[in-house]
C-alpha cells in the first residue's frame, strides 16, 4: 500500500514537472495581446502596420509647425511672418538663426521622426510573422516600411548629423539596447544605413504605375531610386547620382508648374513621392499645415507663418511663372477666384500650402511634394556638371527653365552652370522643405544668410559655420543618453 | 521527536533499579494512542515507556506509580498485577508544548528558528470589530495595521515595511490552507489561531507570494468528549471619536464677506446648519454567534453560525453579514484522517458616498437642510443675504443630505470557501498530506440615480414653472453589476520525521502545489429611463437592447496560475542546535515563458542556549534562544506587460480609400517578473524569572533590488508610453521588541503587562540607469498633487509627500507665502512646479507601538490595549480642498489676517485654489486606547446546564491623543501609499464604540 502511495507521488511529481510549463500558458482575456498576431494575419491586417507609418507624416509634430520652422523659416526663402508679437513659440529665433539647445521645433522634429521609425520597426517586426497574408504584398509592405525608415533617417541626418540607429524593437531592460538607443552613430554610418534600406526597398517595391489610382502615394521603386540619388548627392557620389537618376523612369515634367500644387495635380506624372492629405470627411490631412501658413488678419484664414522672403522674390527672373505659383501676394486674386485683400498682415504667403476647398480647415487636402521628377533632372544635371559633363547638364537645366517660361541658360562654364543649377533648385523647389539643407550641402549658407536682408534683418543674418549646419540634439535626449551622446558643436 | 528526547533523558538520568514484582502496562493518551517516553516511578524504581507506550517496572501491587511527561498532566495510580492501561491527560498550554503554524506543517515554538507572531483567539475576539486584522492592531511587533471603521472595509496590513512601490502590498492570507486576499468573510469567533510569518526564513516556503508577509488563519475544530454549545452576543453603539468644529453661520458670513470684500451675506443668519450632525447618526452594531462543537473517538466537529449587523454613523449606510462554518475531522482508520471545512459568508450592504463627509465639511452653515417649501436647501444667496430658493450660487457644493438620500445603491455578495485535507501515515515516520481548497465568490449590485429629481433639487428649489428639465437628458439612470470568480488550490506533500542515533532529529517536508486564481468575470450594464419601480427592472421576456442601454461592459480578467514545488529540511542536534533549510520553486502564468520560474531559498539557524549545561545553574533564565536566518522572497502581484495595439492611425494614400493604420506605441520587457526581496534577520527569545517575563527581540535588513517602476522610454525608441521595468531598489531596516510580564499572585489574582515597539526605516535606495516616468499621487481633485514618485524620490521613504514649504503669511496683505528653491518667500503664483517643491515626510510611520495590560480578580477580568504610531505625516485634504464660498473651521474663523489683525496665524481669506503645501501637512502621530474590556464570569457550577456565563462591557477607542486637527490620523485612503493613503479626503472617521455582551457555554 505504502509503495503505491510513494510511487503515485513520485509519478505525479514527474507528470507535473513535465506539463507544468504548458499549464502556465494562460491566454490573456482582458486586453488583446500583442502576441496574438492572428487578428492581423491577412492582407488587410498586414497593410495596417504600414499605413500607420504614412499616418505619422500627417502629424503636427512630424510635418507641420515645428518642421516648417526648422526646414523653411530658418532658410533665406522664408521669414517668420505672422504678427510681430506672435513668436510661434520659437519661430522668431529660428528665423534669426539664434536658436539654442532647448529649441522646441528641433526637439519635436527629432522625436516625431523617431516615433515614425518605431512604426517602421513595428511593421518590419510583425509583417514577416503574418504568414496568411499574400507574400507579394508582404514583400511590398516591407519595402515601403524600409523606404519610409530611410526617408526619416535622411531627415534626421540632414538636421542633426549622426544619430542613433534603431534597427530593431528595443527591450527596455536590455543594456545593449539602452546603448543602441543612446549612442549617436557617425553621419557616414547613418548614410550607409539609409542606402542599405533603400536598396532593399528598390528590390521590393513596384513601379508607381503598378499601383492602383487610389494608392499612388505609396512608396514606389522610382521613389526609392530618387531618394537614393538624393542621398548620393548629399555625399557627392556623383556617378551614383547619375546612375540612380537614370533608373527613375516613367515620370515626366508636367507643362503647368502651378497645377501640381492644386488638388487636380496631386500625384501627377511628375510626382515621385508626396505626403497626401484629404480634407473631405473622413478628414485626414496634415495637421495645421495649411492653417499655420494661411494669410493672417482681416480677409485671411490662418496664422500667417512662413512667409516668402524678399530674397526669394528677388531670386525669380522676370517672367518666371513659378513666382506667382509659389507666392500669394496680398491684393491679388488666387486661381480659384479668392481675393486676398491688402488688409492681411503680411505682404506674401506660401501658395503651396493653400487649399482651395478647405482653406481655413485644420486638416486640408494640401499635399507636400517631397520628390519630383524636376528635382531628379536637376540632381542629374548637377552630377553631370561636377563630373565635367557640363554639356550634358545644360539641356536638363533648360528643360526646367523652359517649363517655367524662361529661356535657355546663358551660362556655359562648369562653375557658372553649378551656380545656375543651384539657383534653379531654389526657385523650382521653394517651400518644398529643401532650401536650408541645400544651402548647407552646397556651402552657400553663410553668404546666402548674409544677403537675406529684410526690414526685420537689415543686415542679413549670421550663419555660424561649424555650428549652424546642424540643429541641436534635444537636451532631454542628451540627458537620457547619460554621456553616451554629445551635443552638436556650438550648442552647449 | 518528543519521544526521543524523553527516552534519551530517561536513559541518561535514571539507571534502572529492579525489585519486587514486575508490573506491566501501557500509557496512552486521550485518543488511545501509546505515549512513549513517559517516566514511570515507583519508590526507587523507575523506567520510561517504550515506543508503544508499554512499560514494565518492579513494584508491589498497590504501590503508587507516578507517571509524568512534559506536555501531560502527571498521573498517580495504584499498581495492579493485571496489564494496566493508564490514560494521561494533555496538560494546558506550556512553553514546551506550544506549537506554531509554519506553513505546510507545525513546529514546536521552542524549536522554531523564524520570526512568527502568534496571536491567540481571545486576543482577537476581545476587541469587538468585524475583521480580525483590525483587532490585532498593536498586538504584534513589526506589523502595522491601518484600518478604517467604514463597515465592510478591509484593513491594510504592512509587515516589516513596504518593499514595493507599484506592486501589491497586502500580505498573503492562508485560511485553513486556502490562499486568499479578503478575510472579511471570517467570523472572528471562529478563529483559533492567527499567525504572522515575518521573516524571510519563515516565508520562503510560500515563494512568489510571500514578500509582503503571510498571515495564517486557522479556524476552530471540535474538541473535548462531549457536545459543547457556545453562544456569544453583543450590541454596541458607535460615534465619531473626534469631530472638527466648524464655523457657525455668522462667522462664516463674516469670513466670506471679507473674502469677497462685499456684504453679500447677512451676518445675522436665521439658519445655522451643522452639516456633520445632519449626515450622521449614532451608529449601532450587533453580533450574534452560536457554535456547536465536540468530538467522538473518530469524529471532531464544529458548527458555527454568526450574524454581524451594523448601521453606520453615515445616514443610511448599512452592512449586514451572515457567516456559517463547519469544520469536521474524520479519523477513518489508525492511519487515515480526513479534515473537511466549509464556510459561507453572505453580505448585504447599503453603501453611501463617503464624499458626503467632505461636502458636509465644506457646505455653508447658512444653507438649510430643507427650505420652508420642503425642497432641499441649495447654496444660493438672495438679496437679503440669506440662503434662498432664488439668487446667486456661492459655492459648488451640493446638499450633503440630498446627496445621501438620492444615493440609492445595494450590494449583495456570497463567498463560499471549502476544502478537504487527507492525512495518511504511510509508515511510522512518513506522512502524506493532500489538501484541496476552493472558493467561489459572487457579487451583485444596483445603483439607481433619479437624475431628474437630483437636477431639480439643485436647479429649481423654488419649483418655478419657468425652469424646465432639458428634454434630451435622462430621466433616470440604472447601473447593474455582477461579478464572480472561482479560485482553487491543491497541494500534496510528504512529511518525514525521524530521530537518528538518538541525537539527530530530522524532519523533511516535500511537496507540490498548484494554485489557480480564476478569471474574475464582471458585467456592468447602464440603462437610462427605466421604470422607477425597482420591481420592474428585470421583467420576463423583455429585450432591453436599444438606445436605452448606454453602457455594456462585459469583462473577463486574466486567469492566474501558479505551479510550485517546495521542500523543507528541519534538523535539531542534541535538542539545542537548530537548522532549517527551505526551498520553493514557483512558476507563474503572469510572466513570459523564459522568466516564469523562480527559486526561493532560505535557511534558519537556532541555538537554545538554556539547554547548554553551563546555563543549568542560572535559575533566573528559563529560556534563552538565539535564532537567525536569511531568505529570498517574491512578489508576483506586480504591474504586468500590458502592450496593446494602437489603432486609428489611418491615412489616404493618394485616392479616396481611407486605409486603416495600426502600430504599437509601448515597449515590452520580456524579462518582467516578480520582485525579489532578500532578508537577513536575527532574533532573541527569552523567558526569565519562572517564565513570568517573556520577550523577543528582532533585527532585520530587507532589500528589494528589482522593484518595478514605470520608466520613461528613451526618446530615440520613438515610444511614448511608459513601461514597467525592474529598476528600483527599496530597503527596509528595522528592529522589534516585545515584552510581557505575567504573574499569578494567588488563586484569585493574576495580571499581565505587555508592550511592543517596532522601528522601520524605509527608503527608495536607488534606480538603475533609467529615467522614471513621473507618477503624481495624492491628488486632491482640484488640480493639486501631494506626492510624487520619480527620479527625485531616491533616498526618500515610499509614500513621501512632495509639496511647497509654507513660509507664513505676508503681514502686508495676508497672503500665504512659500519658500522657493532659492529660499526666498514668494506667493503661489511665483512658484515653479519643477524646482520649488520638496520632500516633507512619508505617510508611513517610522515607529509603531502597542501596550496591553490586564487583571483577573476572582470572577472579574479587565484588560486595556493601546496603540500608537510616530513619524508619519498626514495631509488635511478636505481643508486644502476648501474653496471660495465654502465653510471654514471655527479656529480659522476667529484667527485670520485682516488689516486690523496682521499678526494672525492664518492667512486672510482667498479665492484661489491653494497650492499643496506644508500649511496643510500635519503630524500623524497618535496614541489611542484601542480597547478596554471588563468582564464578569457568573459564579455557576461547571457541571450545570449552563457551564459558563461571562458578561462584559467593552469600550473601543475610548481615548486618543493626536496632533492632527482633522477627524482621524489613521487614513487608509485608496490603500496606495503613493496615492491617497494618508490624505484626509472623503474619509470615514475613526469611531468610539461602547459594547455590552455575553458569552454562554452549555
TrEMBL record, chain A:
Subcellular location per UniProt equals:
Cell outer membrane
**UniProt keyword Oxidoreductase, yes or no:** no
The answer on whether this UniProt entry bears the keyword Signal reads yes
Q: Where is the signal peptide?
A: 1-20
Question: Which cellular component appears as one GO term in the record?
Answer: cell outer membrane
Q: Which UniProt keywords apply?
A: Cell outer membrane, Membrane, Signal
Report the residue ranges that make up the RagB/SusD domain in this protein.
354-491
The domain of life is Bacteria
Its name, as the record gives it, is Putative outer membrane starch-binding protein
From TrEMBL, chain B:
Signal peptide region? none
Carries keyword Isomerase? no
Where's it found, cell-wise? Cell outer membrane
User: Domain TonB-dependent receptor plug: where?
Assistant: 109-214
Record membrane topology:
Multi-pass membrane protein
Q: Which InterPro entries match?
A: Beta-barrel_TonB (IPR000531), Beta-barrel_TonB_sf (IPR036942), CarboxyPept-like_regulatory (IPR008969), Plug_dom (IPR012910), Plug_dom_sf (IPR037066), TonB-dep_OMP_SusC/RagA (IPR023996), TonB-dep_OMP_SusC/RagA_CS (IPR023997), TonB-dep_rcpt-like (IPR039426)
Name the PROSITE patterns for this protein: TONB_DEPENDENT_REC_3
Q: Name one GO cellular component term.
A: cell outer membrane
Q: Which UniProt keywords apply?
A: Cell outer membrane, Membrane, TonB box, Transmembrane, Transmembrane beta strand, Transport
Q: Which residues form the TonB-dependent receptor-like beta-barrel domain?
A: 396-957
Superkingdom is Bacteria
Protein family per UniProt: Belongs to the TonB-dependent receptor family.
Q: What is this protein identified as?
A: TonB-linked SusC/RagA family outer membrane protein
What is the species of this protein? Flavobacterium aquicola
Amino acid at each position: 500500500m505504502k509503495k503505491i502511495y510513494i510511487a503515485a507521488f513520485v509519478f505525479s511529481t514527474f507528470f507535473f514537472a513535465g506539463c507544468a510549463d504548458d499549464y502556465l500558458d494562460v491566454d490573456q482575456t482582458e486586453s488583446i495581446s500583442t502576441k496574438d498576431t492572428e487578428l492581423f494575419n491577412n492582407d488587410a491586417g498586414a497593410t495596417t502596420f504600414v499605413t500607420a507609418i504614412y499616418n505619422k507624416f500627417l502629424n503636427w509634430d512630424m510635418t507641420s509647425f515645428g518642421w516648417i520652422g526648422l526646414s523653411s523659416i530658418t532658410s533665406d526663402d522664408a521669414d517668420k511672418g505672422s504678427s510681430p508679437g506672435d513668436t510661434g513659440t520659437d519661430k522668431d529665433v529660428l528665423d534669426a538663426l539664434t536658436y539654442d539647445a532647448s529649441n522646441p521645433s528641433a526637439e519635436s522634429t527629432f522625436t516625431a521622426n523617431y516615433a515614425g521609425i518605431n512604426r517602421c520597426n513595428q511593421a518590419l517586426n510583425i509583417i514577416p510573422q503574418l504568414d496568411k497574408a499574400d507574400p507579394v504584398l508582404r514583400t511590398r509592405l516591407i519595402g515601403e516600411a524600409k523606404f519610409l525608415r530611410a526617408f526619416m533617417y535622411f531627415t534626421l541626418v540632414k538636421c542633426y548629423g549622426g544619430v542613433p540607429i534603431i534597427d530593431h524593437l528595443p527591450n527596455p531592460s536590455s543594456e545593449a539596447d539602452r546603448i543602441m538607443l543612446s549612442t549617436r552613430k557617425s553621419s557616414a554610418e547613418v548614410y550607409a544605413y539609409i542606402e542599405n534600406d533603400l536598396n532593399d526597398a528598390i528590390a521590393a517595391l513596384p513601379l508607381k504605375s503598378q499601383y492602383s489610382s487610389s494608392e499612388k502615394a505609396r512608396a514606389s521603386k522610382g521613389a526609392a531610386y530618387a531618394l537614393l540619388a538624393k542621398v548620393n548627392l548629399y555625399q557627392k557620389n556623383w556617378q551614383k547620382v547619375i546612375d540612380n537618376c537614370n533608373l527613375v523612369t516613367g515620370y515626366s515634367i508636367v507643362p503647368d508648374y502651378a497645377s501640381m500644387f492644386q488638388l487636380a495635380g496631386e500625384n501627377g506624372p511628375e510626382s515621385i513621392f508626396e505626403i497626401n492629405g484629404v480634407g473631405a470627411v473622413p478628414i485626414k490631412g496634415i495637421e495645421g499645415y495649411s492653417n499655420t501658413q494661411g494669410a493672417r488678419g482681416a480677409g485671411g484664414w490662418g496664422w500667417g507663418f512662413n512667409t516668402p522672403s524678399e530674397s526669394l522674390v528677388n531670386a525669380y527672373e522676370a517672367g518666371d511663372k513659378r513666382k506667382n505659383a509659389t507666392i500669394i501676394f496680398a491684393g491679388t486674386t488666387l486661381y480659384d477666384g479668392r481675393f486676398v485683400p491688402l488688409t492681411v498682415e503680411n505682404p506674401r504667403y506660401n501658395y503651396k500650402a493653400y487649399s482651395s476647398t478647405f482653406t481655413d480647415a485644420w486638416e486640408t487636402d494640401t499635399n507636400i511634394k517631397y520628390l519630383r521628377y524636376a528635382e531628379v533632372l536637376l540632381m542629374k544635371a548637377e552630377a553631370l556638371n561636377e563630373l565635367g559633363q557640363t554639356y550634358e547638364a545644360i539641356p536638363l537645366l533648360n528643360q526646367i527653365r523652359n517649363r517655367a517660361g524662361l529661356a535657355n541658360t546663358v551660362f556655359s562654364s562648369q562653375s557658372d552652370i553649378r551656380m545656375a543649377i543651384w539657383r534653379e533648385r531654389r526657385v523650382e523647389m521653394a517651400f518644398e522643405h529643401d532650401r536650408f539643407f541645400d544651402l548647407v550641402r552646397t556651402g552657400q549658407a553663410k553668404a546666402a544668410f548674409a544677403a537675406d536682408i529684410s526690414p526685420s534683418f537689415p543686415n542679413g543674418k549670421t550663419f555660424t559655420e561649424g555650428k549652424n549646419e546642424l540643429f541641436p540634439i534635444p537636451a532631454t535626449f542628451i540627458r537620457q543618453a547619460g554621456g553616451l551622446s554629445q551635443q552638436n558643436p556650438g550648442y552647449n | 521527536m518528543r519521544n526521543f528526547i524523553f527516552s534519551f533523558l530517561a536513559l541518561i538520568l535514571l539507571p534502572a533499579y529492579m525489585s519486587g514484582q514486575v508490573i506491566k502496562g501501557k500509557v496512552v493518551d486521550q485518543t488511545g494512542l501509546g505515549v512513549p517516553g513517559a517516566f514511570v516511578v515507583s519508590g526507587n524504581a523507575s523506567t520510561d515507556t517504550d515506543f508503544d507506550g508499554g512499560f514494565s517496572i518492579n513494584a508491589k501491587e498497590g504501590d503508587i506509580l507516578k507517571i509524568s511527561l512534559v506536555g501531560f498532566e502527571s498521573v498517580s495510580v495504584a499498581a495492579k498485577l493485571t496489564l494496566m492501561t493508564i490514560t494521561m491527560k494533555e496538560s494546558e498550554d506550556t512553553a514546551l508544548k506550544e506549537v506554531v503554524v509554519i506553513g505546510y506543517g507545525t513546529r514546536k515554538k521552542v524549536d522554531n528558528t523564524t520570526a512568527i507572531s502568534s496571536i491567540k483567539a481571545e486576543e482577537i475576539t476581545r476587541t469587538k470589530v468585524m475583521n480580525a486584522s483590525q483587532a490585532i492592531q498593536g498586538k504584534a511587533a513589526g506589523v502595522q495595521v491601518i484600518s478604517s471603521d467604514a463597515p465592510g472595509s478591509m484593513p491594510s496590513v504592512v509587515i516589516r515595511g513596504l518593499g514595493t512601490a507599484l506592486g501589491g502590498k497586502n500580505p498573503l492570507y492562508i485560511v485553513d490552507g486556502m490562499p486568499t486576499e479578503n478575510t472579511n468573510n471570517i467570523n472572528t469567533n471562529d478563529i483559533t489561531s492567527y499567525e504572522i510569518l515575518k521573516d524571510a526564513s519563515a516565508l520562503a516556503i510560500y515563494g512568489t507570494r510571500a514578500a509582503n508577509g503571510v498571515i495564517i488563519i486557522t479556524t476552530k475544530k471540535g474538541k473535548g468528549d462531549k457536545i459543547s454549545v457556545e453562544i456569544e452576543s453583543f450590541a454596541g453603539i458607535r460615534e465619531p471619536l473626534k469631530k472638527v468644529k466648524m464655523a457657525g453661520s455668522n462667522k462664516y458670513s463674516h469670513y466670506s464677506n471679507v473674502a469677497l470684500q462685499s456684504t453679500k451675506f447677512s451676518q445675522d443668519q436665521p439658519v445655522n446648519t451643522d452639516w456633520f450632525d445632519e449626515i450622521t447618526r449614532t451608529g449601532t452594531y450587533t453580533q450574534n454567534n452560536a457554535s456547536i462543537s465536540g468530538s467522538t473517538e473518530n469524529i471532531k466537529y464544529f458548527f458555527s453560525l454568526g450574524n454581524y449587523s451594523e448601521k453606520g454613523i453615515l445616514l443610511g449606510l448599512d452592512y449586514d453579514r451572515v457567516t456559517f462554518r463547519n469544520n469536521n475531522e474524520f479519523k477513518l482508520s489508525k492511519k487515515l484522517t480526513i479534515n473537511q471545512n466549509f464556510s459561507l459568508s453572505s453580505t448585504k450592504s447599503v453603501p453611501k458616498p463617503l464624499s458626503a463627509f467632505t461636502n458636509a465639511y465644506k457646505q455653508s452653515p447658512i444653507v438649510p437642510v430643507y427650505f420652508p417649501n420642503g425642497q432641499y436647501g441649495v447654496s444660493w444667496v438672495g438679496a437679503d443675504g440669506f440662503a434662498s430658493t432664488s439668487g446667486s450660487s456661492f459655492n459648488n457644493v451640493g446638499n450633503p443630505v440630498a446627496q445621501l438620500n438620492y444615493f440609492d445603491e445595494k450590494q449583495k455578495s456570497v463567498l463560499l470557501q471549502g476544502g478537504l485535507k487527507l492525512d495518511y501515515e504511510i509508515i511510522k515516520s512518513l506522512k502524506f498530506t493532500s489538501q484541496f481548497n476552493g472558493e467561489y465568490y459572487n457579487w451583485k449590485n444596483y445603483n439607481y440615480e433619479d437624475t431628474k429629481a437630483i437636477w431639480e433639487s439643485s436647479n429649481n428649489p423654488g419649483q418655478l414653472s419657468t425652469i424646465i428639465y432639458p428634454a434630451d437628458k435622462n430621466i433616470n439612470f440604472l447601473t447593474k453589476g455582477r461579478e464572480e470568480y472561482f479560485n482553487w488550490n491543491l497541494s500534496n506533500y510528504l512529511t518525514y520525521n525521524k530521530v537518528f542515533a538518538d541525537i539527530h532529529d530530522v524532519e523533511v517536508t516535500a511537496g507540490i502545489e498548484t494554485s489557480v486564481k480564476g478569471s474574475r468575470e464582471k458585467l456592468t450594464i447602464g440603462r437610462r429611463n427605466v421604470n422607477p419601480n425597482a420591481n420592474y427592472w428585470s421583467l420576463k421576456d423583455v429585450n432591453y437592447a436599444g438606445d436605452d442601454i448606454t453602457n455594456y461592459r462585459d469583462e473577463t480578467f486574466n486567469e492566474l496560475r501558479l505551479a510550485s514545488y517546495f521542500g523543507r529540511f528541519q534538523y535539531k542536534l542534541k535538542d539545542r542546535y537548530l537548522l532549517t533549510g527551505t526551498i520553493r520553486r514557483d512558476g507563474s502564468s503572469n510572466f513570459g515563458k523564459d522568466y516564469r520560474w523562480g527559486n526561493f531559498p532560505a535557511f534558519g539557524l537556532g541555538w537554545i542556549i538554556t539547554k547548554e549545561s553551563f546555563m543549568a545553574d542560572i535559575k533566573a533564565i528559563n529560556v534563552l534562544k538565539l535564532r537567525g536566518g536569511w531568505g529570498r522572497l517574491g512578489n508576483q502581484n506586480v504591474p504586468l506587460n500590458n502592450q496593446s495595439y494602437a489603432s486609428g492611425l489611418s491615412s489616404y494614400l493618394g485616392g479616396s480609400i481611407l486605409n486603416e493604420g495600426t502600430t504599437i506605441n509601448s515597449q515590452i520587457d520580456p524579462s518582467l517578473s516578480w520582485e525579489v526581496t532578500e532578508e537577513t534577520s536575527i532574533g532573541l527569545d527569552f523567558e526569565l524569572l519562572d517564565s513570568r517575563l517573556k520577550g523577543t527581540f528582532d533585527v532585520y535588513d530587507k532589500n528589494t533590488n528589482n522593484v518595478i517602476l514605470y520608466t520613461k522610454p528613451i526618446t530615440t525608441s520613438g515610444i511614448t508610453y511608459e513601461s514597467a521595468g525592474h529598476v528600483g531598489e527599496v530597503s527596509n531596516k528595522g528592529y522589534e521588541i516585545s515584552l510581557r510580564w505575567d504573574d499569578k499572585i494567588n488563586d484569585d489574582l493574576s495580571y499581565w503587562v505587555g508592550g511592543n515597539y517596532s522601528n522601520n526605516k524605509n527608503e527608495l535606495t536607488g534606480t538603475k540607469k533609467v529615467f522614471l516616468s513621473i507618477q503624481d499621487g495624492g491628488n486632491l481633485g482640484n488640480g493639486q498633487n501631494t506626492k510624487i514618485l520619480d527620479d527625485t524620490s531616491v533616498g526618500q521613504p515610499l509614500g513621501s509627500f512632495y509639496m511647497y514649504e509654507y513660509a507664513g503669511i505676508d503681514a502686508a496683505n495676508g497672503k500665504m507665502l512659500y519658500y522657493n528653491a532659492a529660499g526666498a518667500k514668494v506667493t503661489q503664483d511665483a512658484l515653479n512646479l519643477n524646482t520649488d517643491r520638496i520632500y516633507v515626510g512619508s505617510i508611513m510611520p517610522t515607529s509603531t507601538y502597542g501596550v496591553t495590560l490586564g487583571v483577573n480578580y476572582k470572577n472579574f477580568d479587565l484588560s486595556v490595549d493601546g496603540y500608537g504610531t510616530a513619524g508619519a505625516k498626514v495631509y488635511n485634504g478636505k481643508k486644502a480642498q476648501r474653496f471660495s464660498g465654502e465653510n471654514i473651521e471655527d479656529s480659522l474663523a476667529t484667527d485670520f489676517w485682516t488689516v486690523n489683525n496682521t499678526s494672525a496665524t492664518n492667512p486672510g481669506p482667498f479665492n484661489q485654489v491653494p497650492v499643496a503645501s506644508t500649511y496643510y501637512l500635519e503630524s500623524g502621530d497618535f496614541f489611542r486606547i484601542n480597547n478596554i474590556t471588563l468582564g464578569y464570569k457568573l459564579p455557576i457550577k461547571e457541571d450545570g446546564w449552563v457551564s459558563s456565563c461571562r458578561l462584559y462591557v467593552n469600550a473601543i477607542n475610548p481615548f486618543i491623543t493626536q496632533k492632527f486637527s482633522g477627524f482621524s490620523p489613521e487614513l487608509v485612503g485608496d490603500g496606495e501609499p503613493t496615492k491617497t493613503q494618508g490624505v484626509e479626503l472623503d474619509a470615514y472617521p475613526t469611531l468610539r464604540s461602547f459594547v455590552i455582551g455575553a458569552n454562554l457555554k452549555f
